[in-house]
Write a structure and sequence with these properties.
Blueprint (H helix, E strand, L loop, with lengths): L1 H22 L20 E3 L7 H13 L11 E8 L4 E5 L12 H12 L5 E9 L9 H14 L4 E6 L2 E5 L13
Parallel strand pairs: 4-5
Antiparallel strand pairs: 1-6, 2-3, 2-4, 5-6
Length: 185
């Protein structure tokens, strides 16, 4: 019988907690309130990168060339990134994998950290990403997306992100479109 009473007592505590937690919610007279919203992004897609502006084609080519310098002995997925600064200068970097898994670094962040350390007063206008093998377009990981947004905020201007691969490219005019719910302190 004591097990039965214990279950009744547990149920009573559970119901009390549920009622308490429900009382914390904001209610309208008839229903719970919530708002459904839609998120849409605009982007450009090029089935053939030859249809892009020459400056973007050159930046993609630099990113592709950077893949040759990648150190990816574990994944064999070589990534290159290239930026064009407002001054017109371009720079590139590649990914680097380490035996100590989390110690590696993506091409995008390698490049952005270098640029921010050495050319912080020359804003980045465009960032191109490419991979080898290149069976599809190469998109930045979540950490890279956050860092690109951080750089946009610091420089107070958007960065055109060109994600290329397999002869095609997708372009957004700001990294905010790649990570609409960014972390902010």
């Amino acid at each position: 019988m004591s097990g039965y009473r214990s279950n009744l007592k547990d149920n009573h505590i559970f119901l009390f907690l549920v009622k308490y937690l429900l009382s914390l919610r904001v209610k309208t007279p008839l229903s719970w309130t919530f708002m459904k919203r839609n998120l849409e992004i605009s982007y450009e897609h090029y089935d053939n990168t030859a249809d892009m502006e020459v400056v973007d084609q050159v930046l993609i080519s630099e990113a592709e060339n950077a893949t040759e310098k990648a150190n990816a002995p574990y994944s064999n997925f070589k990534v290159g990134a290239a930026v064009r600064l407002r001054s017109g200068r371009t720079f590139h970097a590649s990914n680097f994998e380490s035996e100590v898994y989390p110690a590696g670094l993506c091409a995008e962040r390698s490049l952005l950290f270098y640029i921010e350390s050495n050319y912080a007063n020359d804003p980045i206008e465009a960032l191109a990403i490419a991979s080898n093998p290149s069976e599809r377009e190469c998109y930045p990981c979540g950490q890279c997306r956050q860092v690109i947004v951080d750089v946009e905020r610091r420089q107070q201007s958007p960065i055109r992100v060109i994600m290329s691969g397999a002869g095609s490219a997708t372009v957004v005019d700001s990294a905010e479109k790649l990570l609409p719910f960014t972390f902010k302190l």
